[in-house]
């Protein structure tokens, strides 16, 4: 064997996997081109007027409505105020008459009409009828006044009067009960 470098076997090299070449070579971004200045749009010219212009479409003209009768609102208000006043008067009378017949307990009042003498029962009978009439007629007429007031407000037939009728018809039982309770409490024997 000779000592020439050409004939000596090469030393084994470690394995290096092949590297794929890059698909795209890195490049710098190109400079953006400037756009040319645009021309201004010319002013639009008006068309010459050839014919007269008809008016545009509009809502159909309706005849003015004649004012509606305010009678429904007035009836509602009158009926409600009558129920209000008569209910308060009846509550005052019933409370004053029933007070002496009531017995006070620690938290309320109690009535025992079974222990009344014949004279007391005879004196209390008209008060009982007034109380029944107040409940029956006051309720019926109050509901009628309330309904008439609502209809008057909804149909614009005496709206302010209808509002007063609604308020009076709604407040009548509340005020009547308060008056009855106060008068009864004031007239109960101690």
From TrEMBL:
<keyword id="KW-1133">Transmembrane helix</keyword>
<feature type="transmembrane region" description="Helical">
    <location>
        <begin position="161"/>
        <end position="188"/>
    </location>
</feature>
<keyword id="KW-0472">Membrane</keyword>
<keyword id="KW-0812">Transmembrane</keyword>
<feature type="compositionally biased region" description="Pro residues">
    <location>
        <begin position="11"/>
        <end position="24"/>
    </location>
</feature>
<protein>
    <submittedName>
        <fullName>Putative membrane protein YkgB</fullName>
    </submittedName>
</protein>
<feature type="transmembrane region" description="Helical">
    <location>
        <begin position="78"/>
        <end position="103"/>
    </location>
</feature>
<feature type="compositionally biased region" description="Low complexity">
    <location>
        <begin position="25"/>
        <end position="43"/>
    </location>
</feature>
<feature type="region of interest" description="Disordered">
    <location>
        <begin position="1"/>
        <end position="43"/>
    </location>
</feature>
<feature type="transmembrane region" description="Helical">
    <location>
        <begin position="123"/>
        <end position="154"/>
    </location>
</feature>
